[in-house]
Amino acid sequence: MLLKRLLEYVGFEPGRLTARWISASEGAKFASTMDEVTEKIKSLGPNTKMRDEIL
Amino acid sequence: MKAKIVNKGQLSGLLDKLAKDYDLVAPVKEETITLFKKISSAQDAFLDYTNSDVSPKGCFLPQSEKIFSYTYTGDSLEIVKPESAKKTVLFGARPCDIKAITTLDPVFEGEKFGDEFYSSKRENTVIIGLSCSKVLSTCFCYAFGGGPCDGTGSDLLFTEIGDKYYVEINTDKGQALVDANSQFFSSENTDQLAKDKEELAKKLAGEFVKKVDLTGVKELLDSDFELAYWDEDPYKKCIGCGTCTYVCPTCHCFDIFDFTTGDITGDRIRCWDSCMYPEYTLMAGGHNPRPTRKERIRNRFMHKLKYHLDRYNMVGCVGCGRCIRKCPVNIDITKIINDLKEVAQNA
Amino acid sequence: MMNLTKQIREQAKKLLEEKKVDLVIGFGQGTELARTTPVFIDSPEGVSALTWGPFCANNLAKYLIDYKNAPGNVAVVVKGCDSRSVIRLLDDNQISRDKIVVIGVPCAGQLEWQKVADEIKPDAALKETVDNGDSFVVKTSTGDHTFNKKDYMLHRCLVCENPNPVIADFTIGEELPVKNYAERFAEVEELEQLGLEEKSAYWDKQFSRCLRCYACRNVCSVCTCALCVFDQMKPMWVSKRTNLSENTVFHITRAFHVAGRCVDCGECDRVCPMDIPIRKLNQKIHKDLKDLFDSPTPGSKQGLLSALGEFSLGDPEEFM
Amino acid sequence: MPNPTALTPYPVTITKIVDETSDVKTFTVEFDDPEIMENFGNKPGQVCMLSVFGEGESTISITSSPTRGKFLEFTVKRVGRLTEVLHQMEVGQKFGVRGPYGNWFPYEAMKGKDLFFVGGGFALAPIRSLIDFALSDQYRSDYGRVEVLYGARSVDDMCFKGDLAERWPKLHNTGIYTTIDRPQDDWKGHVGFVPNYVEEVAPSPKNKVAIIAGPPIMIKFTLPVFAKLGFKDEQIITTLEMRMKCCLGKCGRCNIGSKFVCVDGPVFSQAELKGMPKEY
């Protein structure tokens, strides 16, 4: 939670970090969470932060 | 010596022209910090500074520099070298920092091996100095033969006098730049301004606060490596950061390593390194010849005051005072010099 | 402040004479008028080097780590903020309580030395400093100067949480009232209000200046790892190459690594040679810790678990 | 022509790998551009920077003598990141080499003299180039008797077994002494530490140069033995090791006092070492 807020604070889009508590027995939850995350990342588009042209 | 005049009103015109013809590197103010950066127009330059927070040594030895890129699979290897240095003008560097560059020259150009990267930048850069108009409490360039209006190492030296800059032409390179931009330079009244500059130099020379006396210091360091002094104060308070070495205009230590950019591609990088870091001398087997801050502090000051002198016949310090100002715990090289002098006298 | 200096010296002398400690770590006059430097006193005769005033910004608790394996006991002079470091180090089992003696000095605020130095003639010598409540008077050989605390103090002092040491074996001088000259998290809130792009641009500009001198890390009293992740060669998590990406990773990692342990002493901010507002990152975490877990500043009480090291059923969560 | 100022390595291909011990391998390499080798001009005792791409560079001494052919040999102990990757490489794969750097053994000044080599463990590598140089057909007549005293912890830790047991003893006017630290069933030779063995063998200092390389602790105890035998400091030569990055005398870290090990060393006489700070 702190890291999420910190990342947002330095300018990362909030959706780029997701932390979920998923037990080894919760396969369905894992799958749906992953779907959600991919969906979210896709809608955010390519990350522009920390993509500086390296000199 | 040849000299010219630039009216202050003409300066921005000159800088704009230089920015067009060359890569122009000049002091820039970012919030509270003055540093040297490439600028595209005269209005980005910030000349009302006394001593920049970071020296312009990065013009010749950038903090990070690509040596080459590689594509390597184990069975095949391809190396691509970066483009060579562009024509550059370094404008507005202070005399101490320019002297520092002449201190770096023998390291990178002399002895057995040269250094392609440094030399090509050095050759392609015209250095335009800017005399100081003020002396800070941490300044002590006079102690090593420098001065606030000293032109050593510069191709051109600008000195601000009233509404004009008095321009001394110190090298052919400088002359060529003046010739190519003659519309900005005039020759009237240079004799008077030469006198004014002398006056200014004299006045500023009297304003130094730090008293530095090197008498006997070199001899002491020559004679005794294991001085009890190194067990005292400085190393206890040192926190082992690299600030002093990174702001120092004469520190030239670097690291070389690979920065992978893909599975089989990467860049070989050279970047500044600091003798204050423990892993600086740490060998793969685990042995470290300078294991504690004591050895590292000693090495840093021995390097400045003895080793550089032994090797290149120049003191490895130009008295810019940055390390004094920036040190988090106020380790002061002038105090160390004076302490050592005292040790020498009492020996 | 002459009186406090005298009392610190006396206390140090007594401790050394009675062999209660082998070493006293305190503040001594620096090489600039408005600066002090850490001094390490090991004999009763040496105590005259100790001083006190509005230029004692360093957090000396950091040095306790250097002496944790030393045979003798060590005394250290701490301000309110530094004392939180002492507690943190004790709670992290970095140092043992019976080997340290804490000389606490309620602190009337610390001035930014460079700002002060700009106003005083370079060749002046310091005579005395006087605390006048909302200002300090700095008496020098070339005249007296008054510095308003509001304008000349370090930012961390403007928002000081507690000027009085929270742990001390000996307290020098009177306890001082908490006096804030600014809202503690005002700067953080201001930044929070910005849009994502603006935030990003702001920090990119700051981080791109970073020299990676690691002064912020090395000065930090809760940075106690034997091998820092930034020095580790294998795997090389963060490259030495200085560019915006690597610098950003460095700063986020550093800030997060001390989350829940950072005592908000503000040393990282003070030592940065490039004036990167490092503390603003830590303060953001402090603010969130307060908002989310209602946790007090680490080190303000002994035995306080780190907010990230403690779990209670009432903790808010966003990850189930 | 090699251009050392560029910090750019030249590609080499591994042609042979010898497993010396469990963690030491000797790599034989050839430059992809044969012209580089023609102009390499390496002298016994010099070092190279080995580039393993993705890991960086490391200073490794050239184990082979230039008299042995148009190739270079590097004996590498697996101690760190780079050497670990190097150890995983196979014949036919490539890495980079730049050099040669540093000074060399004063083989000119050694002419007409007997040579007594002392090596411990893996550190026979830096002096092996000079042994082979002095034993080469071309220069054999320049030197007197060549003796090598070599010690390792155990039989398994012995490097260059082929040289020590087969190649060198068969050559004219050589003396090879080997020892291991502790007795072992399959070892019929001498048992004991190197310094003691030197004392037993007792080389005479007359017209002789001692060349020592080994772990610091071995060197520390061997030097007094030579002093006792009457060797002067000038007659004792050793090599040093420091962390290096550029090998050009610029990156700063390998200094011992005013000397840079990479350009002023790695070969130093005991007389020179006495004038330098003990910071290695």
How would you describe this protein?
The complex is a heterotetramer of chains A (55), B (347), C (320) and D (280). Chain A is mostly helical and 55 residues long. Chain A has one domain (2-43). Chain A has helices at 2-9, 27-44. Chain B is α/β, with parallel strands linked by helices and 347 residues long. Chain B has a seven-stranded mixed sheet, with helices on both faces. A four-stranded antiparallel sheet of chain B has the order 5-4-11-10, with no helix packed on it. Chain B has helices spanning 8-21, 95-109, 116-123, 172-180, 190-205, 217-223, 233-237, 243-247, 293-312, 322-326, 333-346; strands spanning 2-7, 23-30, 33-39, 64-72, 77-80, 88-93, 125-130, 156-161, 164-169, 254-260, 265-272. Chain B starts with a strand and ends with a helix. In chain B, a hairpin with a 2-residue loop joins strand 8 (156-161) and strand 9 (164-169). Chain B contains eleven helices and eleven strands. With 320 residues, chain C is an alpha/beta fold. Chain C has two domains: 2-116 and 154-171, no CATH class; 186-293, no CATH class. Chain C has helices spanning 2-17, 63-66, 80-91, 113-119, 149-152, 155-158, 186-193, 196-208, 215-219, 244-257, 267-271, 279-293, and strands spanning 23-29, 36-41, 74-78, 100-104, 126-131, 135-140, 143-148, 170-171. In chain C, the strands form two sheets. In chain C, strands 2-1-3-4-8 form a five-stranded mixed sheet. Chain C has a three-stranded antiparallel sheet with strand order 5-6-7. The longest helix of chain C has 16 residues, at 2-17. Chain D has two domains: 4-101, Beta Barrel (Elongation Factor Tu (Ef-tu), domain 3); 114-239, Nucleotide-binding domain of ferredoxin-NADP reductase (FNR) module (Rossmann fold), CATH 3.40.50. In chain D, helix 5 (194-201) packs parallel to helix 6 (216-228). Chain D is globular, with a radius of gyration of 18 Å. The mean pLDDT of chain D is 89. The interface between B and D is large, with 52 and 48 residues.
Ordered list of secondary-structure elements with their pairings:
The complex is a heterotetramer of chains A (55), B (347), C (320) and D (280).
Chain B: E1 2-7, H1 8-21, E2 23-30, E3 33-39, E4 64-72, E5 77-80, E6 88-93, H2 95-109, H3 116-123, E7 125-130, E8 156-161, E9 164-169, H4 172-180, H5 190-205, H6 217-223, H7 233-237, H8 243-247, E10 254-260, E11 265-272, H9 293-312, H10 322-326, H11 333-346
Parallel strand pairs in B: 2-6, 6-7, 7-8
Antiparallel strand pairs in B: 1-9, 2-3, 4-5, 4-11, 8-9, 10-11
Chain C: H1 2-17, E1 23-29, E2 36-41, H2 63-66, E3 74-78, H3 80-91, E4 100-104, H4 113-119, E5 126-131, E6 135-140, E7 143-148, H5 149-152, H6 155-158, E8 170-171, H7 186-193, H8 196-208, H9 215-219, H10 244-257, H11 267-271, H12 279-293
Parallel strand pairs in C: 1-3, 3-4, 4-8
Antiparallel strand pairs in C: 1-2, 5-6, 6-7
Chain D: E1 10-19, E2 24-31, H1 34-38, E3 47-52, E4 56-61, E5 72-77, H2 81-87, E6 94-101, E7 114-120, H3 125-134, E8 146-152, H4 161-167, E9 174-180, E10 190-191, H5 194-201, E11 208-213, H6 216-228, E12 236-239, E13 255-256, E14 259-260, H7 261-264, E15 267-269, H8 270-274
Helix pairs in contact in D: 5-6
